[in-house]
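Lecture notes, part 5. Sequence design as translation. It can be helpful to think of inverse folding as translation between two languages: the language of shapes and the language of residues. The source text, in structure tokens, appears below.
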């Protein structure tokens, strides 16, 4: 029941992020501004409402992939119909929501869920000191990522942004967050290898749909327990979707994603280093 209430809001956010992505897809500067806004806004809402992993990650990913798919080929985009891009995402959200609602058709499930629902606390928006610290780092990291990666084009810049958000959103402790940067890089390196194998197999039609469904299911199983392993699955999932319009450029996509991940991790570590220096300076001034 709790998901029945919250998931439409999540779906609305995903569709809105996609719509913003396709609306700005004709201009690199506008796409980058939109990417930063979506990253910061999604991070603030996910932190404030206590949304669990993967947090703002998929909002940023959906915005970037939608912009890439709808962008003209002159901007290294796929040139797909904006209506098709947003429409297919909305359809996927609707189907997923129906799957979530299906168990509530059983009386026993409704009764058990009603008891659990009464025991849960009321959802409210709250940014405590820790979350504000995380959000501040995300704002700085997103701005730097946009400036540094914009010359690469939106088809690469969104992956840099995803890397920065994935590292910075998961904690305020500097050492733990830096460790997540290592996980991000290692997980992505293995993930692009998995993507390369998928590309060699070249699944299509029903098999492609089954593959994407399986990857998403596995992501949901492991994302809370093991961040690095989740990235091994998230990476081929995202690349397989984004590469459908550029099926002949697998090798370049693999190399680009490795480079983009390293760039994003470097930016995140730079932000963490700045936070560490600022903390030491403030401590000495006391």
């Amino acid at each position: 029941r709790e998901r029945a209430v919250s998931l439409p809001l999540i779906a609305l956010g995903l569709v809105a992020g996609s719509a913003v992505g396709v609306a700005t897809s004709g201009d690199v500067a506008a796409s980058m501004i939109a990417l930063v806004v979506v990253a910061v806004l999604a991070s603030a809402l996910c932190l404030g409402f206590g949304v669990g992993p993967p947090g703002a990650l998929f909002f940023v990913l959906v915005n970037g992939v939608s912009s890439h798919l709808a962008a003209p080929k002159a901007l290294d985009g796929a040139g797909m119909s904006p209506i098709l891009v947003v429409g297919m995402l909305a359809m996927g959200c609707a189907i997923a929501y129906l799957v979530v609602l299906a168990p509530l058709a059983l009386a026993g499930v409704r009764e058990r869920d009603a008891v659990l629902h009464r025991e849960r606390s009321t959802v409210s928006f709250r940014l405590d000191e820790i979350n504000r610290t995380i959000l501040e780092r995300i704002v700085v990291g997103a701005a730097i990522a946009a400036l540094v990666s914009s010359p690469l084009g939106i088809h690469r810049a969104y992956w840099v942004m995803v890397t920065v958000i994935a590292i910075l959103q998961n904690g305020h402790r500097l050492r733990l967050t830096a460790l997540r940067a290592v996980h991000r890089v290692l997980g992505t390196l293995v993930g692009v290898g998995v993507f390369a194998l998928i590309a060699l197999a070249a699944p299509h039609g029903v098999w492609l749909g089954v593959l994407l469904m399986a990857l998403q299911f596995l992501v949901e199983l492991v994302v809370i327990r093991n961040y690095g392993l989740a990235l091994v699955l998230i990476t081929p999932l995202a690349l397989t979707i984004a590469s459908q319009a550029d099926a002949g450029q697998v090798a370049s996509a693999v190399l680009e994603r490795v480079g983009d991940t390293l760039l994003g991790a470097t930016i995140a570590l730079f932000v963490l280093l700045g936070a560490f220096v600022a903390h030491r300076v403030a401590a000495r001034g006391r």
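The translated text above is only one of many valid answers, since several sequences can fold into similar shapes. Residues 35 and 68 are 12 Å apart (CA to CA).
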